[in-house]
């Protein structure tokens, strides 16, 4: 469908609340629940002890003793999201407890069936995704305090200690920094429909500023996450069973399907933010990158996916700016493109440090027996050395989407 064809299908103003997007928190789940109702005590008990159970290799035996619980007592979106968070973390721990050489082929019924049912209710896949890991996995230490890293903690954790906490919370701060940009999308689309160039110019300036603030937030990764711990300890628990050599056949969800199913692991590409910005700015990625990004949309909550689609069907911002012949609008549009390309370049810098360089150092440590007492005494993971946890060939993908972002610039 051509952009602009379906404006009559777009009830305007494009209300964020229609898409479960918060005016204050954006795509983050506002004030997520921290405890499930009493019948789900066995899940919560295991979930709160995950780092210890995994590192002591006791999680699988604990899961095998877990009662088969019905999901009927779960009520409302908040309880479902917490259940999905808890079951996804337990699943990742269960799968990767023994590292990439000790995977299992079957997720036991008492975990697989409720996880599948909760996933179906939320419209999410039965695997840990960005929604669980970041959007629904935060709490304020002081409820009246600010949304700043010193006042934040995760609800459920995995091995990795302070680096794991830092990885989740810095990513959360990137999501929070995007909120003015999400609001700017709504303002921009409204301004195009109302031919209000002044409001459109202001919205584009706010969008560019929000993207720059996202880059600033991402830079805090260096302060809170140790690359050696991220690579050797944390990363495997974000890995999925699609396009992963360590689990080439996928996973059987016992009691759900006799055939194995394959799902991608957690990935930054599952964040709705950049999909929304790309759609607004009319950025067209390569066929291969687009296919991967569109597949990642299946890992977003359905209302967030619908928000991205709504932007896609709105009138074309780029065409509007081009046909306006307004130099100020062109400049503001290009500032957004430039900020987004810079953000993607910086993401490449982070990935280089936390995956490529960290992998080389881990290999070197493993090759030297005198150095095998690092963050992970076991052999460093290698199945996804050149791939993202979502299964993409990470550098070719990241460079491709950065370059196609730059190509979205309007030339004078």
Automatic annotation (TrEMBL):
Which positions does UniProt annotate for heme b binding? 347
Q: What SUPFAM superfamilies would the database entry show?
A: Indolic compounds 2,3-dioxygenase-like
**Coiled-coil positions:** 193-220
Keyword set includes Metal-binding: yes
One BP term from GO: 'de novo' NAD+ biosynthetic process from L-tryptophan
A Pfam family cross-referenced in the UniProt record is IDO
The record's section on InterPro entries has: Indolamine_dOase (IPR000898), Trp/Indoleamine_2_3_dOase-like (IPR037217)
Enumerate the residue ranges of region (Disordered): 366-389
This entry carries the following GO cellular component terms, namely: cytoplasm
Q: Which GO terms describe its molecular function?
A: heme binding; indoleamine 2,3-dioxygenase activity; L-tryptophan 2,3-dioxygenase activity; metal ion binding
Give yes or no: UniProt keyword Metal-binding. yes
Q: What does the UniProt keyword field contain?
A: Coiled coil, Dioxygenase, Heme, Immunity, Iron, Metal-binding, Oxidoreductase, Tryptophan catabolism
Q: Which PANTHER family match?
A: INDOLEAMINE 2,3-DIOXYGENASE (PTHR28657), INDOLEAMINE 2,3-DIOXYGENASE 2 (PTHR28657:SF4)
* Protein family: Belongs to the indoleamine 2,3-dioxygenase family.
Q: What name appears for this protein in its UniProt entry?
A: I23O2 dioxygenase
Q: Which organism is it from?
A: Thalassarche chlororhynchos
